[in-house]
Design a protein that fits this description.
Elements lengths: L1 H34 L3 H28 L3 H16 L1 H13 L5 H21 L1 H9 L6 H30 L2 H25 L6
Helix pairs in contact: 1-2, 1-4, 1-5, 1-6, 1-7, 1-8, 2-5, 2-6, 3-5, 3-6, 3-8, 4-5, 4-8, 6-7
Length: about 200
Amino acid sequence: MVKIKKYFVLFSTFLSGFIIMGFEIFGSRILRPHFGDGTKVWGALISVFLGGLAAGYQFGGKFADKNSGLKGLSVLMFSSGAIMLAFPLYGHFLCKLISLINAGPGIQTMIAALCLFFIPSVLIGMMTPFFLKLNISGMESVGQGGGGIFALSTFGSIVGTLISSFILVLYIPSHFAVSLFGIILILNGIICLIIKKYSIPDTY
């Protein structure tokens, strides 16, 4: 069970990287009908996603110190998954509403990116400190364990970017793709709780 827990953490690290970049790729397609597909759209998206991840790392570190282990991680998976699952219910509506704001296209795009993508990015970013804590067994392995987590997350982001850009966009509508990412996160959260139930108590 300890090995299963370890593999789950590594898989979840890869998955979080995959989903955050897939979400960003489809985010550009969601904004396109309302705000275009220029540099301003991508600038707003990249800024919001990076800002959300940075905030997530900060808040996630504090949250992990107080709620370390699989239970706290599952809360983040369920929360981010639920928001993304419900995306079709509010995504298009918010874009139409924000497009009516009497402001320049750059400001409209930035507001839309913040409203749609910031909170899910924060929640996914908050998972990384949990992955770090769960993958590091002692101070002597901090460098190797931390480096492995960031490398795996980055690899997941690369795979998520390529698959979303070259395959998924051809077959899956954008809003449905975001919901699919949400379902995957929720299912992963369920697996997380199952592993917690049958694993040894967390000791780090």
